[in-house]
Task: inverse folding
């Protein structure tokens, strides 16, 4: 049935339409084999993060409170025996995936992807019987391709002025995947994007300890899902959501026209696959800190040292590194530790690790760690900022020792940005996280199902494999 609307869709929406046409026209056979292989590993990692996130304090609060409000039994809350409506499940599951700073990251797009795309898409699969594994994979790729492009278009200034890009740009990733999962044509996908975009919101002040930072991705996933479902029913959205001079996404979420690059929204569709730019985390903290942690490890390989040897550490980084993680550490909960340069470097020097066991209520308030964190000074280096997007996580690290000596190391990017993890490393991380919540045999079935996704007749089986028995 043709969508009813007052006027024809404006011709002044080449980028919104370009995204919609890419999403609606994408077919499994058009996706290169290496992208298909990569997306399965990325999804496996996101599912592991989401299952592990089920038992976190903020996740339990959402589960409990939404369970009171919503008795719908439509979609699985991953890692639990609970079911909620599709939109509420997307909210909780997205929160769980992003719940402990373990999930993927796209450096240029400044975006996590799995926490946005998969909760919305799997909810669609649960409500649409018989979505094949190939169709699920195709829809996921559409979201992984669209989301980072929106982030790249908006430039780092979007986040440095206080917007959380997962919560803002991420709505489009979720809308694209959900729209493709529902099989919407280009016209309805335009409206799905327009409905999702007007719900975009999320403030970076949440990084200083608030639980709500964890919820930003879940809320964006939910907004994208709403957009797709409402557009499917004939509800209309902003048809030029990116292009509108007044109240459009780009103009509203940027300080000025020279702060966004709208052409990036559709750049390279079908030739450049942004899915391949998504990397995984093996530290349980914000990606902005990862290059600095790698630099410390490089230094320790040159000269073994620990917390007691250090007089001070100076980190020279981009503006986004300085503003996002360079603030003086004050314990305000686990989130503040995971999003702070000083705490993460201090905890590595004390524990020799920076994973799930290093972020507990006791440790983030530990006086020894706080004192060491205060020895870390993060400075803005304009020369690094001027190098552009590919260098935004670059750091030049100086460690000054109590004996008067000094070591300096520069890293362009985290190790995980230089080479993608092996399948064995991804599977190991997935199993380590998922078996904290689900039985080993069930985790093995989910692993095998994901790695052989194309053979699956009904993608809703993925949700069933993530339900706690």
Result:
């Amino acid at each position: 049935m043709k969508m009813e609307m007052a006027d024809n869709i404006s011709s002044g929406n080449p980028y919104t339409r370009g995204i919609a046409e890419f999403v609606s026209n994408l077919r499994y056979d058009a996706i290169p084999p290496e992208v298909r292989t990569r997306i399965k590993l990325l999804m496996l990692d996101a599912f592991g993060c989401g299952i592990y996130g089920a038992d976190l304090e903020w996740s339990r609060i959402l589960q409990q409170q939404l369970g009171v409000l919503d008795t719908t039994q439509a979609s699985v809350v991953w890692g639990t025996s609970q079911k909620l409506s599709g939109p509420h499940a997307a909210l909780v599951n997205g929160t769980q995936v992003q719940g402990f700073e373990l999930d993927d990251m796209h450096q240029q797009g400044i975006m996590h992807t799995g926490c946005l795309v998969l909760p919305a898409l799997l909810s669609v699969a649960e409500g649409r019987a018989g979505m094949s594994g190939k169709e699920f994979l195709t829809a996921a790729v559409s979201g992984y391709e669209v989301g980072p492009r929106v982030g790249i278009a908006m430039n780092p200034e979007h986040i440095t002025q206080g917007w959380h890009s997962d919560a803002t740009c991420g709505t489009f990733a979720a809308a694209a995947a959900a729209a493709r999962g529902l099989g919407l044509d280009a016209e309805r996908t335009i409206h799905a994007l327009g409905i999702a975009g007007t719900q975009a919101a999320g403030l970076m002040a949440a990084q200083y300890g608030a639980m709500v930072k964890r919820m930003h991705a879940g809320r964006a996933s939910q907004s994208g899902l709403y957009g797709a479902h409402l557009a499917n029913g004939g509800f209309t959205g902003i048809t030029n959501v990116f292009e509108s001079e007044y109240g459009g996404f780009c103009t509203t979420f940027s300080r000025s026209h020279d702060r966004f690059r709208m052409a990036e929204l559709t750049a390279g569709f079908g030739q450049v696959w942004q899915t391949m730019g998504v990397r995984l985390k093996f530290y349980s903290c914000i990606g902005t800190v990862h290059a600095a942690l790698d630099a410390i490890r490089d230094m320790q390989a040159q000269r073994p040292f620990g917390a007691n040897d250090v007089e001070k550490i100076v980190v020279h980084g981009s503006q986004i590194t300085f503003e996002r993680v360079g603030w003086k550490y004050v314990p305000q909960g686990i989130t503040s530790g995971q999003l702070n340069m000083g705490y993460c470097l201090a905890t590595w020097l004390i524990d020799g690790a920076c994973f799930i066991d290093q972020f507990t209520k006791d440790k983030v308030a530990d006086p020894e760690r706080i004192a060491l964190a205060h020895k870390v000074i993060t400075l803005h280096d304009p020369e690094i900022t001027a190098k552009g997007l590919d260098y935004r996580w670059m750091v030049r690290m100086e460690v000054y020792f109590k004996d008067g000596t000094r070591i300096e190391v520069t890293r362009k990017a985290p190790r995980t940005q230089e080479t993608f993890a092996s399948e064995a490393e991804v599977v190991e991380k997935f199993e380590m996280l998922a078996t904290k919540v689900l039985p080993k045999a069930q985790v093995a079935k989910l692993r095998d199902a994901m790695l052989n996704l194309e053979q699956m007749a009904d993608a809703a089986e993925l949700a069933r494999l993530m339900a706690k028995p």
